[in-house]
Design goal:
The complex is a heterodimer of chains A (111) and B (154). With 111 residues, chain A is mainly alpha-helical. Helices cover 62% and strands 11% of the residues of chain A. In chain A, helix 1 runs antiparallel to helix 4. The longest helix of chain A is centred in the C-terminal third of the chain and has 31 residues. Chain A starts with a helix and ends in an 8-residue tail after the last helix. By secondary structure, chain B is α+β, with helices and mostly antiparallel strands. Chain B has a single domain, classed as Alpha-D-Glucose-1,6-Bisphosphate, Chain A, domain 4 (2-Layer Sandwich). A 7-stranded antiparallel sheet of chain B has the order 1-7-6-5-4-3-2. Classes of the chains: A mainly alpha (111), B alpha+beta (154). Chains A and B meet through helix 5 of A and strand 1 and helix 5 of B.
């Protein structure tokens, strides 16, 4: 996956707002997504195109409609690349602490 | 009809055949599906079951479509959370489409009701499961046969 495309797509507040709306109700047509936005239909379609190119939005045809869905998989990839790494260290630190405490518990008498 | 549908799309560098094997080899599935085992012989109309590592049944259902290496559909019901089991059947579809050097894998999990708790509950799991599957296949740690044409070393 192209991380640059994902970050570029997420760097725009309108596009993040569109993702939020899809998070709320997945599977929306362009017209639904335009509702309440102070933007032309073309502008919204363009933003959706950027999100789709970054694989953050997936589309599915249903009859004559093109429905847009939030695709969370690339965001998971980003989380794993950095955050999962930190969690690993925390877990390693915790398990090292646990091992240290268990091999030398305070209640045990030292020789 | 009101429906809850979540879609997950990932691009995996593999052949459709290799990805299909990874998706359907019951010995291999636990490696990317968080240790969960699938019990099925993949006959259309036959039973399908997901079992946790501790032996509890996670989900049950039926194989609806089995079209290698393109489409796999499962009728799916949760078994371990009463409030989700109560919702009844959902539908899970795997679609594989070759795209250049990769395969576009789309997982569509839907239920015939608005605001399905089951679809909401699985939405946290699918991205992680698919991400596992992708890295397992692409980093070559996977047991799935690799592409015969070896890509040029970078």
């Amino acid at each position: 996956m192209d991380d640059d495309a994902v970050f570029a797509a997420l760097a725009d507040p309108t596009r993040r707002a569109l993702l939020d709306r899809l998070r709320e109700t997945s599977g929306q047509a362009l017209s639904e997504l335009c509702d309440g936005l102070q933007m032309t239909r073309q502008a919204v379609a363009k933003h959706l195109g950027v999100l789709e190119a970054a694989n953050l939005v997936a589309v599915r045809r249903q009859g004559r409609e093109k429905l847009h869905f939030l695709n969370p998989v690339p965001i998971q990839g980003i989380a794993e690349r950095w955050i999962a790494k930190f969690q690993e260290r925390q877990l390693a630190a915790l398990s090292a602490l646990k091992a240290a405490l268990e091999t030398d518990p305070p209640q045990k008498r030292r020789p | 009809m009101a429906e809850s549908t979540f879609l997950y799309v990932t691009f995996i560098r593999a052949t459709p055949e290799a990805l299909w094997r990874a998706l359907t080899d019951t010995d291999f599935i636990p490696q990317w599906w968080m240790g969960v085992r699938a019990e099925t012989d993949w006959t259309v109309g036959g039973a399908w079951k997901l079992v946790f590592p501790d032996g509890r049944v996670a989900d049950t259902g039926e194989v609806l479509e089995f079209e290698p290496p393109k489409r796999l559909a499962i009728k799916w019901r949760n078994e371990f959370r009463p409030e989700l089991k109560e919702e009844g059947w959902s539908h899970c579809l795997f679609e594989l489409e070759p795209q250049g050097e990769a395969v576009k894998l789309t997982v569509t999990h839907s239920a015939p009701r608005a605001g399905s708790k089951l679809i909401e509950a699985v939405s946290g799991g699918w991205p992680q499961i698919l991400s596992n599957l992708k890295s397992l296949i692409e980093t070559g740690k996977a047991l799935v046969p690799q592409r015969t044409a070896k890509p040029a070393d970078a």
